[in-house]
Backbone:
């Protein structure tokens, strides 16, 4: 049968073809949306692994938030959470009267934190920044909170010793600083927080430096 002799396509066939085409577009859209959703959900967890020092996002437990606030109950003024994640420490501190800031490398978590602070009515006393902690100075803060990992604590000790004023207080969660002596602790197990006074660890470092100079003479 020649091409001219082919029977015309029926309306039913055309309708079936249109339906299949629409289904294909719909399935493609659903697949694309699903992949986008997976990307958005996993990005907060995957990005930290690309950092030079891994600071993964592990949300603070209610007990950890409570212990941080308990450790800072006699403090006031400015506060910074280094690696602020979803903003829960910053928001809880703002409720207690602190002017609180968070620094986080993951933009999705920063945007979510800003929305959460707005929703909870503390956006005027909070700020969230997309930034690498090693590129920021913390000299203006009188209270510092860090949920760190062991491999970064030595470097962070040196950075905070150089930048913080002597009146500052540092609260370490999950892991203590390796060389500083805490003034006190709160909680137990993985909910423990260690509290350090900048005046103490700065003077201790100065004494060590003086001893080194004397030994070198």
Residues:
């Amino acid at each position: 049968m020649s091409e001219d002799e082919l029977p015309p396509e029926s309306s039913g066939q055309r309708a079936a073809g249109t339906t299949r085409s629409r289904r294909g577009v719909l399935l493609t859209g659903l697949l694309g949306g699903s992949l986008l959703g997976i990307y958005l959900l996993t990005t907060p967890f995957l990005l930290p692994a690309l950092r030079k020092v891994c600071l993964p996002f592990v949300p603070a437990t209610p007990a950890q938030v409570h212990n941080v606030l308990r450790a800072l109950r006699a403090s006031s003024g400015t506060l910074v959470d280094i690696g602020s994640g979803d903003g829960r420490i910053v928001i809880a501190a703002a409720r207690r009267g602190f002017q609180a800031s968070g620094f986080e490398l993951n933009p999705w978590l920063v945007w979510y934190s800003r929305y959460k602070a707005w929703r909870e009515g503390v956006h005027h006393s909070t700020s969230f920044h997309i930034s690498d902690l090693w590129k920021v100075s913390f000299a203006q803060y009188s209270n510092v909170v860090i949920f760190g990992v062991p491999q970064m604590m030595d470097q962070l000790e040196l950075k905070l010793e150089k930048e913080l004023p002597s009146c500052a207080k540092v609260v370490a969660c999950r892991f203590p600083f390796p060389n500083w002596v805490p003034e006190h602790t709160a909680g137990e197990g993985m909910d423990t927080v260690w509290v350090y006074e900048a005046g103490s660890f700065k003077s201790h470092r100065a004494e060590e430096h003086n001893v080194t100079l004397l030994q070198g003479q």
